[in-house]
Design a protein that fits this description.
The chain is α/β, with parallel strands linked by helices. Helix content is 40%, strand content 20%. The longest helix is centred in the first third of the chain and has 37 residues. It starts with 6 loop residues before the first helix and ends with a strand.
Length: 536
């Protein structure tokens, strides 16, 4: 991309122009006939020649300095900006790669690294860096960042040359919002680095915050006006094909299996471990109640769809002052409902997107937004808004490598997709550890798992049901009892995938893995991509 002259060059040109005008005026004065009479004196000629020589020297000096500055600018421009991601589910990495594309399009060279690939030397040799950092769970860093936290952050580094920006990803529904991004920002400041701008915090992929980040990228790239907008991914129309409760009579919350098919019959591709993002809606009763309260006609068509349809997909304004009288103005002021994410339990060859979800209840007993929509309010055969999000941090290893799958509750959904993919690829060395409440009611996908075990796809199947008694109560207890087997599988090159509850199961399983392999052994697996988690 063509770039204009730098400010330093423009300044030098202006100074040279002023000197040229001054030299011309002085020359005219000294070469006149002794100001008002007579011929030019020899001293005047000498003075004029000296003035021109001095002007030439100044011009040469400015030109040399300008060239030096321009060369320095070009050299520093060739030093790539460092883009760093810290990601648990793959979203931060995806944003990092998109940011790199924006900067490259603006003519800037960039380097993209995971935070686990960044050490003290890299930071000390970098002049500009952007960090895109997710917070997982209740303020925790992503798993792969442990080497940086343990080996780099304790060091007493001096980073006065580093100018940086942070994009912190989080979810305000958790207690420690954007905690890891804030931690990185504070640590960089403490070690003398200089923020390019205030940390940009993103609540649940908020489009407005991401648009602000893109604007800052454009400013760094020097050409913000020509950069295309990041358009949010558009939902595709799917159909609610089937749903049923999987655990009637269970002491656990109601769990539902939901089957979705594309309206146009064209099934897109996805990988085991990817996520379905659902655009939820309010129940028809809630929308009708709002319309009645505000005396509005839900059948009025605004921008191609009814007011009722707009309201169903949006936050319903509560305060009367927030409800414009004009329908078009009301629609313009509506804010869309946040999406809900679910692990996909099926593979494209099965012809459907299969989800497994618990119906969550609010304190007043009403169902939650996403689960209420899918389990209660959406009509069979009705439209479901869906889009896919790639989740590379939870993709499978090569089929020749052993695979250990550990999960509880609805976490079996993501593990079931991996097992189905292994069936399709003929990968037979798989070990599944699964825990729930009761075998009679909560053994989800039991028929599939038992069949795959008989067919040799599942080499080991360990199940634990906490309400049924037995030697082990939780999945982490069974794993602890099998530590020797765990070490054996890991020595054989196994990858560990953990899917399910962040509270209880995931940290307990993590502790057992560290006990079995040691802290360094566990971190080596994380860095190698052989210990991956999708926990919520």
């Amino acid at each position: 991309m063509k770039r204009g002259p730098s400010r330093a060059v423009l300044g030098n040109i202006a100074v040279m122009a002023l000197l040229a005008i001054l030299a011309w005026l002085l020359l005219r004065l000294h070469l006149q006939e002794d100001w008002w009479v007579g011929a030019p004196l020899a001293s005047h000629w000498r003075w004029a020649a000296g003035s021109l020589a001095a002007y030439a020297a100044v011009c040469a000096l400015l030109g040399w300095r300008g060239r030096r500055r321009d060369d320095t600018a070009r050299a520093s421009g060739q030093a790539p900006l460092l883009l760093v991601w810290a990601s648990q589910t793959g979203f931060a990495r995806q944003l990092c790669e998109r940011s790199a594309e924006v900067l490259r399009a603006a003519g800037m060279p960039v380097r993209v690294r995971g935070l686990h690939q960044v050490d003290a030397a890299v930071l000390q040799q970098t002049s500009r860096a952007l960090l895109i950092a997710s917070t997982t769970g209740e303020g925790d860093p992503p798993d792969h960042t442990l080497p940086f936290l343990r080996r780099v952050m304790p060091q007493d580094l001096a980073l006065p040359q580093l100018h940086y920006g942070v994009l912190a990803l989080g979810d305000r529904s958790y207690g420690h919002y954007c905690a890891f991004g804030r931690q990185l920002d504070a640590w960089l400041r403490q070690h003398g680095a200089h923020p390019l701008f205030d940390t940009v915090e993103v609540d649940n992929a908020d489009p407005a915050a991401l648009r602000h980040w893109q604007q800052l990228l454009g400013q760094l790239g020097g050409n913000a006006t020509e950069l295309p907008d990041w358009a949010p991914a558009q939902y595709q129309p799917w159909q609610l094909h089937a749903r049923r409760q999987e655990n009637p009579g269970s002491p656990s919350a109601a769990t539902w299996r939901v089957s979705l098919v594309p309206v146009d019959g064209v099934l897109p591709a996805w990988q085991a471990g990817d996520v379905a993002e659902i655009g939820p809606q309010h129940s028809p009763a809630d929308v009708d109640a709002w319309l009645a309260t505000h005396a509005r006609d839900g059948a009025v068509v605004v921008e191609g769809q009814s007011l009722r349809a707009w309201l169903a997909r949006s936050h319903l304004p509560v305060l009367p002052d927030a409800v414009p009288a004009d329908d078009a103005a009301l629609v313009a002021a509506l804010k869309p409902l946040p999406h809900r994410e679910y692990s996909i339990a099926s593979m494209p060859a099965e012809g459907q997107v299969l989800l497994l979800l618990r119906r969550l209840l609010r304190p007043d007993g009403t169902p939650g937004l996403g689960s209420g929509w899918l389990c209660d309010h959406a009509a069979l055969g009705g439209r479901i808004d869906l889009r896919f999000r790639s989740n590379p941090n939870f993709h499978a290893p090569a089929p020749g490598a052993p695979l250990i799958l550990i999960g509880n509750g609805t976490g079996i959904a993501g593990l079931r997709a991996h097992l189905r993919a292994r069936v399709e690829r003929g990968a037979g060395r798989n070990w599944l550890l699964f825990g729930e409440r009761t075998a009679a009611h909560d053994f989800y996908f039991n028929d599939d798992l038992q069949r795959w075990q008989r067919d040799g796809v599942i080499e080991r199947l360990d199940t634990v049901f906490s309400r049924d008694g037995g030697e082990h109560r939780y999945v982490q207890d069974r794993l602890r009892a099998q530590r020797d087997t765990l070490r054996h599988w890991v020595r054989d090159g196994a990858t560990i995938l953990v899917c399910g509850s962040l509270q209880g199961m995931a940290p307990a399983v993590d502790a057992v893995i560290e006990q079995a392999l040691g802290r360094e052994g566990k971190e080596a697996l994380i860095v190698a991509g052989r210990y991956r988690r999708d926990v919520y």
